[in-house]
Amino acid sequence: MENKNHIDNISIVLCGAAGQGIQTVEALLTKTLKKSGFYVFATREYMSRVRGGVNSTTIRVASKPVRAFIDRIDILIPLNEEAVPHLKERISSHTLIIGEKRYIDVIPDLNSEKVEIPFEELSNNIGGRIYANIIALGVIICMLKANINILHTLITKNFKIKGEPVIENNIKAANKGYETAEVLINNRTLKGEFEIERVPEVVNDYIIDGKQAIGLGAIAGGCNFACFYPMAPSTGIATFLAQHALEFDMIVDQSEDELSVINKALGASYAGARAFVSTAGGGFSLMSEGVSLAGMTELPIVIVVGMRPGPATGMPTRTCQEDVELVLYAGAGFFPKVIFAPGSIEDAFLLTQRAFNITQKYHVPVFILPDQYLVDSYYNINSLNIGALEIHKNLVKTDASYERYKFTDSGISPRGVPGYGDGLVDADSHTHTESGEITEDPILRKKSVQKRFKKLGLLRKEAIPPEFIGNEDYKYLVVSWGSNYYLIKEALEKLDRDDVGFLFFKQIYPVHKIVFDYLTRAEVKIAIEQNPTGQFAKLLENETHINMNHRILKHSGYTFSVEEIHERLKKVIEGDENI
Question: Which of 551, 547, 546 is nearest to 572 (CA)?
């Protein structure tokens, strides 16, 4: 077959309204491609509505690992009249738009290649417009020369509950799309198949998204009580745990509000549970008093705060990194805490598992800060490496002389739970004695604060050091955290400069002391964040007294793209970025 495009990755975008089945097509497509031997990455952007609006999914297909969002669109399948206008800034002369004439010609003078395929007419011949998406899926499968039989198997599994007629019609629709594309390729109406090298090892990989990774990390951390009130983008984490609660002997409770959530979780923690809460910025605001309670009573708890643009309801289905300061300063008075910010699916799993061990060891609240982009993105991975993971319980059996808040050299009191031994396990939100009785003694108050500082010192020593990428002899140092990891990494590969290093933080508080050495060696320090004020840059400046020279910030509610970071970094280095 002629007219093949030999490339190492392509970007496919499906765009239409909520309720059109885009997520179903996306899942079938990525699984088929992975099982056919391709690396895949997918991420979504969607409006805050059940039906209507404009939602899109970007899928990258490659012969090597790809794990970041790009603006470039190679193939666009618009499924309603709003799709092309919605994506026009990402469409170029290299974009191939395939679909209904009335959807692809919305902007007549658009500089791109267009191929009309009457998906709806073809689907009506099969059983109704509902099958148009599956026909589009068959077209893509043909263009990439993926295995159509794999798609048949997945369709059978996916639609099993709907019965044989639905399965048969979906398979017919997929075949019709495949056959239609074959005809168009052969007569050169369609510019041809995209020839991407296959990687046999990929076939047995797992496809995992951010919310599943956090949920699996909680399970691996021994979570046995999870509580939540639905709030995007974290709802999927709790529903994943609920789906697997019986398998792993967990209680998963959907409570009536966030005040109830935090207090139920602390009550469970007091009773000995390994407690977990998932929420977002607005919900977490209501939990602030409960976080203070955790600090005073030294009750272990893991809290996920999924970040989205605020204030208040903000943009509930969009992405940002705006909640660093909210979490860092949550609660009245001083008490130590730990904040993790995963940059990858693997991080999301491992950091959540680690969070349970840290909170059980130090009796402090531990936070995990993903954002919508990370939670809703996924790619194929070989393994989560669960073999080396351990669950640390750190409980003591109490006796009659037990004191829950005993002062120790380390600052960590022995933790007992009711019913495990003969001792009384007290808890009180007031300043208290070692046995847990209320006190206003200034000497005991001072010792209690010193005890918290001791724990903070230990937490600093156990902090995860930032990851450095690049040439150690750098002039420019890019500093970032969280879900920006792969975006920046790929942008730096495009930049291809030996004088740029990248310092990435997956633990953003407490900060590891080695960061001081990296910052002092850089002539130019460039912070990259998805918020309007550079919250993590300010945290670093406060901790190290070293200022960032430049901030590359974004706060539109849409994630950075690889191309955007690449261009803005170039401008900073060339002196043209307007900060």
Answer: 551
